[in-house]
Fold each of these.
Amino acid sequence: MDQEKTGDNQGAGEQRVLVSTESPAINLERDAKGGIVVTRRPKVTLVMLSGGIDSVYTLVKLLRETRDEILVHHVDLINQEDRFRIEGKRCLEIVNYCRETYRDFSFSQSAVDHRGFRFFGYDMVTVGFEAGIVAHSYLMAKGRPVDRWTVGTCTEEGHWEERFKHVEACVAANCFPEAPPSFFLLPMVTKREEMDYLPERLVDICWTCRTPVKTEDGVEECGECKTCELMIDVRQERARALVAEPA
């Protein structure tokens, strides 16, 4: 995911097999005579949106390049880092932009409040827990499952496979007794490649700082957390490339 807990010993690890973005899902139903009717439908894909570059890139790519039914969910992670308000605000702006620019999709939100605890957990574990809630709720409401779910990441930040077994356990726990949706990642690209893929307006809306600093007008990036340090390098790289382009 694009914004992980500071201090996580995150590494790319072994990248899991990617699921095809185009293959349809299959419904099996019984007709009036008891026979089985097989129908094909678009996959139902859940995107967990943080408001950062990685998850927005993932959302836009799926909206543009698949016919999946897209569900988008944002979790307000309320803790000492105190970024949940600005992330939530930016996510609403991102959702509105993507609906107007690409196509419609379902959007939901939830909140997990860990203020007052010295340890407030790992973002991805909490996100997995909420993904299971969303998937189970969708099944109850629609009578069909969420086929797969995903988050955003990039080559610089990777995917911590060793920890992910705990994330998947959280998803499965909240889907029980039904099967959980499968997890997949889009092919990883660099943060700069993600930004180059997105419209500049959408890049500007994204929020990437883990520990925002309060100002008279709201908040601003701290410039010191690990995502700020990465974004400073990427923005400088993009600026140099822009200057180097022929007029």
Amino acid sequence: MSVKVSISVTTYNQEKYIEQTLESLLMQIANFDFEILINDDASSDKSQDIIRQYEEKYPAIIKPIYQRENQYSQGKEVHYTFNYTRAQGKYIAYCDGDDYWTDPLKLQKQFDFMESHSHVSACVHAGKAVNEKGTRILWTQRADQKNTYLNTGKVISSQGMFASNSLFMRNYFTGDYKVPDWFHEAKITDYPLYLILSTKGDLYYMDDIMCSFRVASNGSFTQVVLNDPNRKKTHLYEMIDLLESFNQATNSLYEKEISDQIKHNLYDYVSTDINVIKSNPEEFQQLYDLVPLKMKMKLNARYYVPGAVRFLKKVKEPIVMVFKPKEEFFIES
């Protein structure tokens, strides 16, 4: 079997989701061979038992590693360390163990595009955010409302702009290639990879919904980081460190885009939790001084006229619904 595409999957205590994930990968209709590389990060539930059942059924396709100790907690980027470096494919596709693909032709579409566009380093697409059970669509994640190329500047501002399980990239991880130090130092997983890929060629966005990703599932970013004020604060500074490291690595070539994104991150942090202002006014003042005037005005309105902000929140969704169904709402970065 000559593998053309390697699918990288990581799991940790995702017994409720992993079967749906694997079925969505195995349903792919393609005119090439693919392998599914799984790194289970020492799950304590039945995730490994489920994976073993699939390994026995599809031994030529499913190739797991069963960790005895959790590697992510030791600071390792598990997709890269345990899957990318053993990938046999010309291309690598990405999917976490709680997400799934919805289009049986997803791989074929991305493969065909990459084969005919050698200047493109990776291909991504639209996806649907769903609740933990996968029964309700929360929103549709789009990088644009049309097919388009994404250069490095756009990728810098792309945080959350497309689903990680939409990624289909060239395999740059064979031979002597080593990822830069700042990639290993970053505490975030997929975003640093997008930055690396953007320096090797454009990313291409397909405005085609071909995957779903769960929000607030067990072990998800929403559950672990966004719902924990301390982790959320730590994540903010990790993102700033990452962007500053990337700026240095690229000799300040994208300094303006990076500066704008840092300001955007600062604003998002203090605006989404007004308790930040009340609990630590000195720290807030330092962050407040860094954001542009327009953002300061929004923060002032949020703090001094909270009733108006609540009113705007109430009327925002009905206004949007007049023009566009909720699941098709365009998420802007």
Amino acid sequence: MKIRPENKDDHDAISKTTIVAYEDYPFRQETEHQIIDDLRKADALTVSLVAVVEGQVVGHIAVSPVTISDGTSDWFGLGPISVLPEFQGLGIGGKLIKAGLSRVMNGIGGRGCVLVGPPNFYCMFGFANYPQLIHEDCPQELFLALPFKGRVPCGIVKFHPAFMQLAEVEKDVVVDVIIDYAMAGVKMDLENPTVQRLIEKGILMEMPGHKVIMRPAVLEEYDPILASLTQFRMTEMGRVHKNPFMAAIRS
């Protein structure tokens, strides 16, 4: 097994490896392969390493810059990390993580790394939870950091905008809410995991009666086009409610 930097011929294999590897991962976003592509296009893929076995890409790790609200610089986000299922359990993921951390620490002079993942696994690489370091899009106990030098920052961490994407199933739910938009909210199955994720992200807000309403300002951060459609729909429906004749037709 060899670990090396990616080249342009690896891009398709990296996407396929990432999709397959994350199929059964409990913390998946369902957009991991798109995140890597967008980081690459934005020239924000600071480190991109592949694990190769007999000429086949079987694993990949990405590293990209993060911002911290206290102004601390030179910190990076580790991930997405992927290994094909048939090659898992062989230590390939661990070797990719160590290689990625080494590149950040020794290759580009990084001061630390953060990631979202299970503490019981990543603690073996030195990652730990620091209460003063916060990522608002996940439970605090799953947000881990590894300082290389200096103090641990104190602030809110944001990953590159490439991570702010909606999965296709999330977009489908958003579109359903737009189509069925009502001033008092749209009735949804609040037990649906996709609906729950959108509520956790703040895109949907739960209302009484098993209803939700859209929050266009939050949706704008994830998908400006859907946010614009939402705003248009809300404006049009507002006009209907204000116009007695249109309201009568609608009823």
Amino acid sequence: MKRVSPPEAETARIDFAQPLDAAAPRLRCAFGAPRQVLVAQQVDAVRAVLDAVHAAAQRGHWCVGYVRYEAAPAFDTALQTHATDGPLAWFAVHDAPQPWPAEAAQEAARVEWHSGLERGTFDAALGRIQQAIGAGELYQVNYTAPLTGTLQGSAAALFAALQRAQPGGYAAHIDAGDEQVLSVSPELFFDWQDAPGGGDILARPMKGTAARGATPEEDAAQAAHLRTAPKERAENVMIVDLLRNDLSRIALPHSVQVPALFATQALPTVWQMTSDVRARTRPGTTLTDVFAALFPCGSVTGAPKVRAMQMIHA
């Protein structure tokens, strides 16, 4: 773990739903210069960073940051990933959040994206994945390709544009100095509220998608079809089962439940199928324990997780 000099300017903005407390308003705030920055450059430092984040949060501090997909081997050496140059974990520790800044005039921000993977390479990988699924080695793989591009405008302007295009969900802009993270993900990885006698944890994976309709009638029909489509339900329940198993590693006995299965959520351009998986965490559970049980999320990898990540890494 590496402690670096805190940035002097604003380091983050977050705009999050709070699903464990339906009556709570959105958590919408900014963070200025932190009191401390915790960084893991190597796999063997990731757990120490999360331990420090957990300890800081217990002291009443706010911690904002990220854990990279490539940090997965810190929790299980069987989880294969590619090497990366950036930090595997980065967190800024703050005394308190600040109000969300007043909306500024809209600035232009534009990126010309280019695939970081040649089409032939991508198609060959998909062929290997299909063969593995046909052979019964695994059930699904979330295989993606990286995109690269040059930003014209500021990162803050791009983040604002992304929020306008896809409001709600879990939006964050983190300025980590050499890296900036801009996210407007609609998917909840987990929401955890710890307590001495055992905490509450909720995961809400997204699997199953349908386009929005051009008319209200067509839109309703698309949502209804998504709720009953065998392929979409099968894709969703595979990840629900994976997360039930992952949560059981940190849950009190018999506490893992699925209170909502095959729900539909409206997004600007698609209907998304979601399910809720909840549990009570055992007393003494730490943030590191939660990540060791759940990271990376099964909806990001596929199932089974270890084999899916091997196929992604190949």
